[in-house]
Amino acid sequence: MTGAASDDPAFLYEHAPCGHLSTTPDGMIVRVNDTFLAWTGHARDDLVGRRRFVDLLPVGDRIFHETHYAPTLRMLGAAREIALEIVRADGRRMPVLVTSVLDRDDTGRPVGVRSAVFDVTERRRYEHEVLAAKRRAEASEARAVQLAQTLQQTLIPPTPPRIPGLDVAAAYRPAGDGRHVGGDFYDVFQVAVDDWVVVLGDVQGKGADAAVVTALARYTVRAASVDHHVPSEVLHTLDEVLRRADTDRFCTAVLVRLRRVAGAWRATVASGGHPLPLLRRPGGGARPVGGYGHVLGIVPAATFVDTEVVLGAGDALVLFTDGVTEGRRGTLLYGAERLAEVVDAHRGTAAATTDAILADVMAFQSDDARDDIAVVTVAVG
Asked: By the 8 A CB rule, do 185 and 374 touch?
């Protein structure tokens, strides 16, 4: 189309990229362009002078028209981008956005309404697809969270076992609202008579993938503890398993082997990149025990150190994840010094010490844990 035809106002009106309607103040259609007729399938003679704009709307939109659209137009003189549906000649509905202007004469009396109608069928379809995709994603996330939480419940014993001669307590607090499972885990299990293993670890990351690696770590420790008598050898096995596994997640862990020999408990401690346990003795302050080893699952030739201590009456070992010492209040860290002070101040049962640590680190963070927290306390009765 060239020349006068393309510039002719009548042609531009009739073939505009949007529908045009003109009505009387009470809504009777007096003019309609070809675009609107082509979209809706209505004939011009069936609309002009015969039907009102509101007659082209489904029942729900008619109510909206009378209660919101028309009053807004009368009060403000314009109504912009109103979402409605137009009923086509064949009964199908076409989603539209309508912008209308109320024309007045020199005395201010309404003389007509001019409306531009935009077909938003594709936009509405896209919005529905986006909403459906969002709902599918939310449902998928909910299933993944439920799966991970269910899996983690199998990784953390609900209560530590009863060990004659020892008092054991544990606590676990996930980060944030607790919906997304983290990688902290602990386990306390028996290998033989008067021979027990305590392990506490932290797998990098959160979610179902971290939970899977957590399960692998926990059950590897259980299996390796049967074949190996010192914690360092168990950690070597776990390190090898993680490096060969199809995962890029690493792990830290601290392992304590507890044996009762001639009536006295001997604890052998080894750490794989994990914070060292605190040893508290009667009349003395809590202090770290053991030697650091490499993080598990990263270094090809990792090394680990076994440290043995004899535990007497009143002694206690406190194992914890870095969610305790790295708890934050603004720029302040909870820190190892504050943890030692809490351990020293609560010398009752293992549960009393464990509960005091959890309560204090949560209070320090205003009950908003930014990382998972796990604590295990083993005390000699």
From this structure: yes
The one-digit pLDDT tens for each residue of the chain (381 residues) are: 455 556 788 898 999 999 999 999 999 999 999 999 999 999 999 999 999 999 999 999 999 999 999 999 999 999 999 999 999 999 999 999 999 999 999 999 999 999 999 999 888 787 778 888 888 888 877 776 676 666 656 656 667 889 999 999 999 988 866 555 667 889 999 999 999 999 999 998 777 777 788 888 999 999 999 999 999 999 999 999 999 887 778 899 999 999 999 989 999 999 999 999 999 999 889 999 999 999 999 988 999 999 999 999 999 999 999 999 999 998 999 999 999 999 999 988 999 999 999 999 999 999 888 888 999 999 998
Enumerate domains of the chain plus CATH numbers.
3-119 (3.30.450.20), 154-380 (3.60.40.10)
CA neighbor of 278 nearest in space, from 167, 194, 378: 378
Measured over the CA atoms of residue 240, residue 229, residue 321 and residue 149, the dihedral's sign is positive
Closest CA to 65 of 85, 37, 42: 85
- In Å, how far from its chain's centre is CA 58? 41
Threshold 0.90, pTM exceeds: no
The C-alpha atoms of residue 367 and residue 372 are separated, in whole angstroms, by: 12
Nearest to 202 by CA among 217, 190, 188: 217
**d(C-alpha 311, C-alpha 186), whole Å:** 21
> CA 373 to CA 273: how far, in whole Å?
17
Residue appearing with tokens 């103040």: 25
Query: Which region, left, alpha or beta, applies to residue 134 given φ > 0 means left and ψ of -120 to 50 means alpha?
Result: alpha
- Contact by Cβ (8 Å): 57, 85: yes
Residues 6+ apart with CB under 8 A from 330: none
